[in-house]
Specification:
Structural class: alpha/beta
Distance between the termini: 31 Å
Shape: globular
Helix content: 25-40%
Order of helices and strands: EEEHEHEHEHHHHEHEHH
Strand order of the largest sheet: 1-2-4-3-5-6-7-8
Strand content: 15-25%
Radius of gyration: 17 Å
Oligomer: single chain
Number of strands: 8
Number of helices: 10
Low-confidence stretches: none
Largest sheet: 8 strands, mixed
Length: 265
């Protein structure tokens, strides 16, 4: 089912499938809710699975001028509230995980648990300054080309070649990326530092990381594990940054086991 909620001057679109406790999925930069296709299919038997198109992506409207990280979080809160199912399990991959941390900063009452996937406490909060500077320069080069030559594909998303079955999906999403959104996301990530949020997280937290992730290496996962009081880590062997697509069955298995365990608490 497709739905839209109006929040903070933006029409925010989301897909909703299944029944059960709500599981809200937050995509990475240069992508949209379609990146969660395997999870919408694989987890809907037990959960109400929701994948949003963040403001400025997919079926959602463009970013208003001056839109900030907190505004993304407020819009995500509006999606959770629109479901009318109570606090949600909220998962975010890469940039999406940073948005999820900002959601927890402002709206912890809407979060039943966190699933942080190959993510960052912002680039500033998780990466060495020289790496952040290199990524900012890469983003500037990406955005400086003529619009017809714009390619939003970031390096190092997969451990090897993208899985063949998802290449058409990745190409379709890339063709629809809005450069203005991509630029806003990347520069927000460069300035974001969510480390102060981590010690105050008071809900169960699952960390899912690709063993071979070069964009958010396992050292970032270990920093999260040390900082978050009730966190556990699942490392997916042989997998890179886009772990939900590179190993969807293993990814779903880890998420399902975590959420089933919470039901027994």
């Amino acid at each position: 089912m497709a739905a839209t909620v109006r929040a903070w001057g933006v029409d925010v679109a989301y897909a909703r499938v299944g029944e059960g406790p709500p599981l809200v999925l937050v995509h990475g930069a240069g992508l949209d809710g379609r990146m969660w296709g395997p999870q919408l299919e694989g987890l809907a038997g037990e959960f109400t699975v929701v994948a949003w198109d963040e403001p400025g992506a997919g079926r959602s409207s463009d970013l208003p001028h001056g839109f900030a990280l907190a505004d993304f979080a407020h819009c995500l809160a509006a999606v959770v509230e629109d479901l009318a199912l109570g606090p949600a399990h909220v998962a975010g991959l890469s940039w999406g995980g940073t948005v999820v941390l900002e959601l927890y900063r402002h709206h912890p009452e809407l979060v039943r648990s966190l699933i942080l996937v190959d993510t960052y406490a912002g680039w500033k909060g998780s990466l060495p300054p020289e790496e952040v500077a290199a990524r900012v320069e890469g983003a500037r080069r990406m955005l400086a080309v003529p619009r017809e030559e714009f390619d939003p594909t970031l390096p190092g998303l997969f451990a090897g070649e993208p899985p063949a079955r998802f290449v058409p999906l990745l190409d379709a999403m890339a063709r629809q990326v809005r450069p203005e959104t991509m630029g806003a996301q990347l520069f927000m990530m460069a300035e974001a530092d969510e480390r102060d949020v981590l010690p105050g997280i008071a809900v169960p937290t699952l960390l899912v990381w690709g063993e071979l992730d070069v964009r958010s290496p396992p050292s970032v996962a270990r920093a999260f594990l040390e900082a978050i009081p009730d966190a556990r880590l699942v490392v997916l062997p042989g997998v890179g940054h886009m772990s939900n697509l590179e190993a969807p069955e293993d990814f779903d298995r880890a998420v399902r086991a975590f959420l089933r365990g919470l039901r027994r608490l």
